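Question thread 4412

I'm putting together a teaching handout and wanted feedback from people who do this every day. The idea is simple: show students a protein as raw sequence, then show them the structure tokens that encode its fold, then repeat with a second protein so they can compare. Below is the first pair exactly as I plan to print it.
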Amino acid sequence: MIDKEWKQKYFNKCVKHLIKQGEPALCANKGCVYRTPGGQACAIGCFVSDDIAAELDLFNDSTFENPKIVDIVFSELDEEYSNNKQDFFLDLQRGHDGISFYLLENLTYEEIILETFSKIAKKHNLSLPIELAVLLETTKEKE
């Protein structure tokens, strides 16, 4: 079992990053990448350096299920590996990677972040960071 504070720390950093960034980290073919040439980072890419993100993007299978990617990320974060930590990071990655599909449904980026990461917070019993809570209130006011 991993510590709730550990999850909250990484969840907050990821969500704050994605909200501030304002768009997903996509390459020219609209596929997700760890880091774009313009500096946008995905949910996992925001935790690692530019050099490591570039290395991760070289893998054909760039999901957080690839053991080589998992090893590189945990090494970069100086974190001890566990299946629960990998599963949590995989949820964050899937949250980001699903954004491009939601955009086809004419939802705004903010609506997608709110919906997707609220579900992740609930699944992992986490609090919403203030940035996400403000986004939730703003969305409610528009309705």
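The second pair follows. I'd like the answer to focus on this one:
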Amino acid sequence: MDTLFVCNTGISPLALGSIILRPDDTAELLGDLDSEIIGLLQDYLAEDLISITDSDDNPITLAELERYTALDTILNTRHREAPGIRTVTWVDGGSPASLPENGSQDRPFRLIQDALDRIGPATAETVGEEHIVFIASPGGEIGVYDENLVVPNGRKITLCALGGLSLGNGTTTGDILWEPATTGSYGIRPTLNIVSISKFYTRLSTSVESSGWCIKGKLEINNEIACDLNLIGPGSIAGPIDTPTSSAEIWMSSTGVLFESTIAAHESFTATIHLLAAQYCRFASDMLLLKLGRLDVCDIVGDVEFGSMSIAVKPVGLYSCSFGSSLIIKSTATLPMDDVTIYNYKKSGGVYLDGTKVELSSSALNATFLGEVVVPSVSGGEPASECQVDIVDFLGQDIAQSVIGRVLAQTAQYGGELAVNTNVTFSDATSGSILASGSGWVTFSTDASGVFVCEVSNSADEVVYFTVTSAVGAATAGVATPNIRPQLDAAAEWS
């Protein structure tokens, strides 16, 4: 059932779960409401869809309504099926001080905390309700609410900025404290949504308070039970997201938000945040996560430490993301990246750590390298030539580590393993080392600069095509076996 905003000029749906009766003239009796409204109320009462009580929970019949004035009474109603009810509360810091507050659109609260206090902690009767708090932007482009907030326990609450909004920026720090506790949860998963109805940004690098919401302080979450945190911008959080005593998982998603400080990145904190998904976000400082899901088109400036990849989203990983310089990602988990992300990651000079401090090219990252092989042609019956392989990173820049790869000698260009030339053999490495070889192939380990050089011989006069590939199935302790993309097939002629 829709909540009704009732005045002597008509009815309009506003939310779920309550009916507010208020004539335009506050001195006018409710019994003077027009026949359309009276008929609608009679129908709802007859069908037992609503109950009407006074502020002391005393039942009110339709015949008794004329005793109540709008100024003194907000009639409390309850849908017979409590779960799923949605209530709406309005906040406007610019509302005249002389105007009585009741949280309606015409008489909004002037403080956000007053709206949260009106909602209050969940009870067994109200636990299934969803609450939306619309927050106006008084005083021009940016509405400043100089207050700290405490979010009531056990609730599903959405704070919706209707324009530019700044929490804090004056005598208060603008902090939000949310402590979802087992007591009073009634088996319902508490949820906090902070959203904006405003112009959307595809990249965030500076404060966005002029067009969305801006929390000047910190968001502190101390949860005993699993809870959901959803942040939809444009928006920004200047302070950290702290989890000092968090003991249960926090499922977090974000779109279009600038995180100017750390996310749970404190040595005394336990990792409880499950960053399920984020897109068009900028993470300007360090993150400590329990699980990492999927990040799309995000700027990751600080270091990231996480325990495992999420199983709640597919595919997981980083897609079209960019990074700050010398970024460190620390995890024992495999972290998938698309080519754009790998390019940006390696360009930033980041280092991937997996507990044993394997470098960026470790198989845990599955990084992509580029490989080029050169074999000069020989003539006059000489059987031997020189095979030189150069491995570089995805940007074409030199590497400073040993990697494992494979060279194939082919009878046809682009023939790969299906056209191996068995007349060719490899021997006597002068840079790097030969791990294994056979007729038409060699598995090698480069030197510390990504270079491998050896002798190559052919028992026949012919043209041979050489290519460098990944050494699938080959592994040596302490040496990376990356994905290698050949730059070209080199042709050498024996004559």
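Top answer:
Good format. For the second protein you could add a caption like this: The chain has three helices and 37 strands. Confidence is low (pLDDT under 50) at residues 1-36, 65-83, 201-207, 353-366.
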